[in-house]
Design a protein that fits this description.
Elements lengths: L2 H21 L11 H5 L2 H12 L5 E8 L3 E7 L5 E7 L4 H10 L8 H25 L7 E5 L2 E5 L2 E2 L2 E2 L10 H16 L3 E2 L8 E4 L2 E4 L6 E2 L5 H18 L7 H9 L1
Antiparallel strand pairs: 1-2, 2-3, 3-5, 4-5, 6-7, 8-11, 9-10
Helix pairs in contact: 6-7, 7-8
The structure holds adenosine-5'-triphosphate and magnesium ion (MG).
Length: 259
C-alpha cells in the first residue's frame, strides 16, 4: 500500500479516536489524542487495514481501556456486531524515549526487531490459549483472529462497555464455586494453567463468570505449572475470603486438581 493511503487512513482513525477520547477519558499515562500515536504506529495501522479488507471488522469505534502492555479497542464488524481488539504495544511510550539511545548503537541493532517478534508471538500465544479453552467449552471470549500484535475476540459487554469485572461485582458462594471450576476445567480440559487468574481477569455476567487475559497461560508441560497453579488458587481464594465467602483449604484444592 502506498504511503499516501496509509497516511490518510491513519489520520482518519486519528480523528475518530480523538473525537471519542473527548467523550471518554483514558487511563493515566495517556494524553488525550496522543494515545493514537503511541499505540497505532504505522505497522499496527496496516494490520487494522488488513483486518478491514479481510472483513474481520468494518471499522474501529474507539478505545476501551489502556493498560501497560496492551490497549483494548472497540471494533465493529459488517453485521454491526462488536469485536474486542486487543492491541499489544510494540513500542511503549517508555521505550520510545529510550529509542534514540539504542538506535544507532550497533550492539542493539537487532533489538527492535526482537521486541516486535516477541510481542507478535505473545498475541499468537493468547489466541491459541483462548482457542484451546473455547474448544474445551470453557467460558472465554470467543477468539476470532490474530495478526501481528492484534487479537480479535468476541466483545463481552454492551455498546463498547465491557462487562463488570469480578472485582467490581457483588459476589456469592456460587461465584466462588464457578471460579474454582474454571481453574479445574482449565487444568483438566484445556490442559492449561492461567498464570494470572484473579478478580481483574474475570467478568461476571448474567450468564456466569467468563475468564479472559490468557496471554500468560501455560501448557501443563511447562516446568512452572505447579507453582503457577498454586498462585492462581491462592489469589482467587484470598479475594473470596476477603469478601466473606467461605473458602476451601488451598492445599486440598491443589491436590484435588492435580490428582
Ligand atoms: N473480550 C473483551 N470484551 C470486552 N472487554 C474486554 C475484553 N477483553 C478485555 N477487555 C477489557 O480490557 C481490559 C484489559 O484487558 P486484559 O486484562 O486482557 O489486558 P491487560 O494486558 O491485562 O491489561 P491491563 O494492563 O489493563 O491489566 C479488561 O479489564 C476489560 O475491561
Ligand atoms: Mg488483565
Amino acid at each position: 500500500m502506498s504511503d499516501e493511503i496509509s497516511r490518510k487512513l491513519e489520520s482518519k482513525i486519528d480523528k475518530k479516536l480523538i473525537s471519542k477520547s473527548k467523550r471518554k477519558h483514558l487511563e493515566d499515562g495517556f494524553k488525550k489524542g496522543k494515545v493514537v500515536n503511541e499505540v497505532l504506529d504505522k505497522p499496527t495501522v496496516m494490520t487494522l487495514y488488513k483486518m478491514i479488507t479481510d472483513h474481520i471488522i468494518a471499522y474501529v469505534n474507539g478505545s476501551v481501556s489502556a493498560g501497560k502492555e496492551s490497549v483494548l479497542f472497540w471494533g465493529v464488524d459488517e453485521k454491526d456486531v462488536s469485536v474486542a481488539l486487543k492491541i499489544y504495544l510494540v513500542s511503549t511510550s517508555n521505550f520510545k524515549k529510550r529509542k534514540p539511545y539504542i538506535l544507532g548503537d550497533p550492539r542493539f541493532s537487532k533489538l527492535k526487531r526482537g521486541t516486535k517478534n516477541l510481542v507478535y508471538l505473545w498475541a499468537k500465544k493468547e489466541f491459541r490459549n483462548l482457542s484451546q479453552c473455547y474448544d474445551a467449552g470453557i467460558p472465554v471470549p470467543k477468539p476470532i483472529y490474530v495478526k501481528n500484535n492484534i487479537l480479535a475476540m468476541d466483545f463481552v459487554g454492551q455498546n463498547g462497555s465491557p462487562a463488570k469485572l469480578l472485582l467490581n461485582s457483588e459476589v456469592y458462594e456460587d461465584d466462588y464455586e464457578q471460579a474454582i471450576s474454571l481453574i479445574k476445567d482449565l487444568y483438566n480440559k484445556a490442559k492449561l494453567v492461567h498464570g494470572d487468574f484473579s478478580e481483574y481477569n474475570i467478568f461476571k455476567t448474567e450468564n456466569g463468570l467468563i475468564v479472559f487475559d490468557l496471554g500468560s497461560a501455560v501448557d501443563l508441560r511447562h516446568p512452572n505449572t505447579q507453582e503457577f497453579l498454586k498462585r492462581d488458587i491462592n489469589n482467587i481464594t484470598r479475594f473470596f475470603n476477603k469478601r466473606g465467602i467461605p473458602v476451601e483449604d488451598t492445599n486440598t484444592l491443589f491436590e484435588d486438581i492435580v490428582k
